[in-house]
Amino acid sequence: MLAPWSVFASSVIWLSAALCSLALALVLAACGDDPAPTPEPLPPTPAPATPVPAAATHTAASQLWRDLPSTSFEYTILAELDPTGREAMIENAVETLNEYILGDSTNVDAYVRRGVAYTAMYYYSWPDSDEGFIEQAMADFAKAIDLDPSNANAYIGRGDAFYRWKQLDRARQEYDTAIQLLSEAIGTNSNDAETYIARAKAYRFRSDPDKAIQDLDAAIRLAPDNPEAFYIRGHAYAQKGEDGKSIEDYDMVILLDPNHVHAYNMRGFMHVLADEYDKAIADYETVIRLNSNFRWAYGNRGDVYISLGEYDRAIQDFDGAIAIRPYTVAYRGRAAAYFNKGEYDRAIDDYSTAISRNPSHRQTYVDRGDAYYMSSEYNKAIEDYDAAISLDENDAYPHYSRGWANLSLGDESKARTDFNKALELGYDIDEIEAALAELKKLEDNG
């Protein structure tokens, strides 16, 4: 029979994006929601390092556009506060910026913000990924840079756009340019906390949490009541694996801003890493109390309930998350709960939905293959393990599991090949030896 299966309960928090470098985060693009998961997006980037031209007084838009998001990640934050209204929010932002730019075609920040909005439109056009949006974003960033070549925000925005577009090398180049500009700004004025924060974000994207922390330390010395600095430093410490310091920073964010739902959400996940499940559940419950539409909190709590073996409560939470706005990982989480309850048909249904939404995510094929195996549908299990191997041939587990499926079908030759391949790729030697012993027993009984 199949060796005990270790449940893969994906965290809805998308910690990967929060804890990994820009390059590693993109690897997980297939895991998510809607598009590339940025579970805990960075807070908004502050004003450019160079002055922005004064806004003209001409329409009501001149009073509205300055409140619009200045990074695509800020749109992700806002979208999670109201998932059902995200498209309308972004479309309204573009309309407001269009109106303003018609009246003042020289305002750099307006072009940057519209480029950011188009980047968000591209991000949320997944899986179709309408490149027309990214082209419009690039045109706006190019216009902003043409008007002001030293505007750091324009390069950060264009870096975000390249990141969303999965062009990491070009994204890094943009962030490096932004770092250089921000460093020059700090050399001119070393007492601006917001400039240190902006450079810290760029360093995090460049996988340099140590430099990010140095900048955030400086920002906190200058502005000790700024929750954003503590929030980003919490991410940077988490990126380094310093979970205790990360939690301390999220504690400070919550002290300074008791309604900061993202800080509770992140602190909850850090408690999960420390096996402090009661504290994690308490944080997720606080998020839900503050914002009942924050779907990640339901999904994150569902993952905790899976870890605790409370599968019915987990299913209720994933139901709640999906009811707010469906996303792939919630289906996978609910499938894992059904699997552990032995309700394999329901697990297969949810894994199938996840695959239809994101057909390039390897682990979902593995998980559905396991559910097919436990349902004695060995040929379908093999098809899923084949699909997983085609996406990553160096993953030992699907080779190992396919070996058991082949063995169950009586194909001992293929089973031996799979087990040996799994061993070659580093799968647990004790389990492989047990599988090969079982195979030998069957061969001997011929």
Largest sheet: none
The percentage of residues in β strands lies in under 5%
Kindly report the average pLDDT value.
85
Instruction: Evaluate the radius of gyration.
Output: 24 Å
Give the class from helix and strand content and strand pairing: mainly alpha
SS field, number of helical segments: 24
Note the run of SSEs as H and E. Answer: HHHHHHHHHHHHHHHHHHHHHHHH
Uncertain runs: 1-32, 35-63
Please provide a written account of the structure.
This protein has 446 residues and is mainly alpha-helical. It has 24 helices and no strands. Helix 7 runs antiparallel to helix 8, helix 15 packs antiparallel against helix 16 and helix 16 runs parallel beside helix 18. The protein is elongated, with a radius of gyration of 24 Å. The protein starts with 14 loop residues before the first helix and ends with a helix. 53% of the residues are buried.
Helices and strands, with pairings:
Layout: H1 15-19, H2 22-27, H3 61-64, H4 72-81, H5 86-103, H6 108-124, H7 131-147, H8 152-164, H9 168-188, H10 193-205, H11 209-222, H12 227-240, H13 243-256, H14 261-273, H15 277-290, H16 295-307, H17 311-324, H18 328-341, H19 344-357, H20 362-374, H21 378-391, H22 396-408, H23 412-424, H24 429-444
Helix pairs in contact: 4-5, 4-6, 5-6, 6-7, 6-8, 7-8, 8-9, 9-10, 10-11, 10-12, 11-12, 12-13, 13-14, 14-15, 14-16, 15-16, 16-17, 16-18, 17-18, 18-19, 19-20, 20-21, 20-22, 21-22, 22-23, 23-24
